[in-house]
TrEMBL record:
Pfam families in UniProt: Bac_luciferase
Enzyme class: oxidoreductase
InterPro entries per the UniProt record, alphabetical: Lucif-like_OxRdtase_Rv2161c (IPR019921), Luciferase-like_dom (IPR011251), Luciferase-like_sf (IPR036661), SsuD_RutA_monooxygenase (IPR050172)
Top-level lineage group: Bacteria
Record GO terms (molecular function): oxidoreductase activity
EC assignment: 1.-.-.-
Domain named Luciferase-like: residues: 19-225
Coiled coil ranges: none
Organism: Dactylosporangium fulvum
Keywords linked to the UniProt accession: Flavoprotein, FMN, Monooxygenase, Oxidoreductase
Protein name: TIGR03619 family F420-dependent LLM class oxidoreductase
Gene3D superfamilies: Luciferase-like domain
Length: 278
C-alpha cells in the first residue's frame, strides 16, 4: 500500500505547484485536487450529503480551476502522480474534458489519475444544465465518450446525453488506453458504476467501506483497485486498509499556509511510520 494526499487548491493557501513539490519531496506517491466551479449562494442541498457536517467550508468556493492547478502540480514535480479528486464530469463538456485529461497526461509523462464523480450539490449541477435526477446516466455516458476520444483517431459516440460524429482530437494520453479512471462516491449504486466504467473505486473513508470492498472483489471479473481518501492519521486504520487490499490511502491536507500543511504532513507521516514499523 502506498500513500497520498488530497487538497483543495485555493488562491489564499499554499499554491498547487509548491504543494505538489513538497509532498513529492516528503515521499508521498500522489496528490489529488478537489473541484468546484462555484457554490450557489442560495443552496438547499445539505453539506452532509458531501460527507461533511455543519456549515460548508469556504474552501469549496475558493478553489483554482482543477486542470490549471493540475498543470502547475505536474510542472513542479517529476515522479508524483497527479489526479482529480474528484472531477465533476456531470458539470463538464466531455470533449473539452477529454482534451484536458489527455493534455495533463501528455505533459506529465503519464502521471495523471482521473478521479470522477457526479457530485452532491444539486444546485451546482443545475447551473451547468444537468438535471440531478439523471446525473449518474450523464456521468456514465460522458466517461464512455471520453474513452472513445482517447482511443480512436476518428471518434464517434451516440448516447441519450452525449452525441457526436467523427471527431479528431489530439493529443492522446500517454497511458494507454487511458489514465486510470477512479470512480468516487459511496452511494448505493457506486459499485455498479465502478464495474461499468471504472478502473478503481475511490471512496472517502468510513467503516462501511470494508464489506463493500469485499463485495467489489467478489463481483469483479477483472482487476479493480481501491484507493481511499479522508483516511485518519491512525496506524490501526492503515493496517485495516492494508489487510483489505487497498492500493493507496490518502489524507486531506488543510488549505492553508505551508507551516500548517507541514504540521498535517508530519502527523500523517508519523502514522505511516508506525504502521510500517519504523
Amino acid at each position: 500500500m502506498d500513500f497520498g494526499v488530497g487538497y483543495f487548491p485555493t488562491h489564499d493557501a499554499m499554491a498547487p505547484g509548491p504543494l505538489a513539490r513538497l509532498v513529492e519531496e516528503r515521499g508521498q506517491s500522489a496528490v489529488f485536487f478537489a473541484e468546484h466551479t462555484h457554490i450557489p449562494a442560495s443552496r438547499d442541498t445539505p453539506y452532509n450529503a458531501g460527507g461533511g457536517e455543519g456549515e460548508l467550508p469556504r474552501r469549496y468556493w475558493h478553489t483554482f480551476d482543477l486542470f490549471v492547478a493540475l498543470t502547475a502540480a505536474a510542472a513542479a514535480t517529476s515522479t508524483l502522480r497527479v489526479g482529480s479528486g474528484i472531477c465533476l464530469v456531470v458539470e463538464r463538456d466531455p470533449i473539452i474534458t477529454a482534451k484536458e485529461v489527455a493534455s495533463i497526461d501528455h505533459l506529465s509523462g503519464g502521471r495523471f489519475e482521473f478521479g470522477v464523480g457526479a457530485g452532491w450539490n444539486r444546485e451546482e449541477m443545475r447551473n451547468h444544465g444537468t438535471d440531478p435526477r439523471v446525473r449518474m446516466a450523464v456521468m456514465r455516458e460522458r466517461v464512455e465518450a471520453m474513452k472513445v476520444i482517447w482511443r480512436d483517431h476518428e471518434a464517434s459516440y451516440q448516447g441519450r446525453h452525449v452525441s457526436f460524429d467523427r471527431i479528431l482530437c489530439y493529443p492522446k494520453p500517454v497511458q494507454r488506453p487511458h489514465p486510470p479512471i477512479l470512480v468516487g462516491g459511496t452511494g448505493p449504486g457506486v459499485l455498479d458504476r465502478v464495474l461499468s466504467f471504472g478502473d478503481a473505486w475511490f471512496p472517502n473513508y468510513d467503516e462501511s467501506i470494508f464489506p463493500r470492498i469485499a463485495e467489489l472483489r467478489s463481483r469483479a471479473d477483472r482487476p479493480i483497485d481501491v484507493q481511499v481518501l479522508s483516511v485518519p492519521s491512525d496506524p490501526k486504520v492503515l493496517e485495516r486498509l492494508h489487510e483489505a487490499g487497498v492500493q493507496r490511502a490518502g489524507q486531506w491536507l488543510p488549505s492553508a499556509p505551508k507551516s500548517r500543511v507541514e504540521r498535517a504532513l508530519d502527523e500523517w507521516e508519523a502514522a505511516i511510520a508506525t504502521f510500517e514499523g519504523e
